[in-house]
C-alpha cells in the first residue's frame, strides 16, 4: 500500500485537488481526510467535545455551541485559537490523540483490504510529523496574495483575521520546498485539473517511488 501525503495552506486549493483525484471512480485513490476526522472527534457526545467546552470560553460571553445543532461552533472556536498560539496548542493537546487513533484505524483497514494507493489529506501534515508515514508528499501551492484573497472571500472575513489564519500554519513556501510534488493552483481550474490528473497517473506508476524531490507536474 502506497501512502501519499496531500497538504497545502489554507485556501490554497487542497480540497479542489482531492475532488479532482476522486472524480473518476475507476482511478480514484482512497482518501483519508483529516479535516473530516477532526470534525468527527469533536462531535457532540465525544470526550473531546466535553473537554473543549471545559477549557475554552468565548471572551465576549457568547456560547461556543451552535443552538440549532448542539455542536461546537467552529467559527467561534477558530476565532479564539487563530488569535492565540497557546490556545491552539491547548486545542491540539485535546484533539491530537483521537485524530491519530482514527487515522490509524482507517490506514489499517485499507491495508487489510489491499488498497493500493491512499491519499492522506492533511492540512498540518508537516506540522504534525505525519509526512513520516508517507512515501511522497504533494503540496498544493498558491501565492500569498492569491491565498489571502481566496480566504477573505471564502470565510467572509477581513484581512487581519485572514492573515492570522494563514500565519497559524507553516509558511506555504517552506512546504513547497520540502515537497516531492507541487501542484500550482494559482491559475484557472482547467490548469489545476491537468496537473492533478497527470500527477495521479504518475503516483500510480512505479516511478513515483523514486521521484525526484520537488518535481513540478
TrEMBL record:
One of its GO terms (biological process) is coenzyme A biosynthetic process. It comes from the Eukaryota. Gene3D superfamilies: P-loop containing nucleotide triphosphate hydrolases. It comes from Acanthamoeba castellanii (strain ATCC 30010 / Neff). The keyword NAD does not apply. This is DephosphoCoA kinase. Transmembrane segments: none annotated. Pfam families: CoaE. InterPro entries: Depp_CoAkinase, P-loop_NTPase. GO terms for molecular function: ATP binding; dephospho-CoA kinase activity. Keywords: ATP-binding, Kinase, Nucleotide-binding, Transferase.
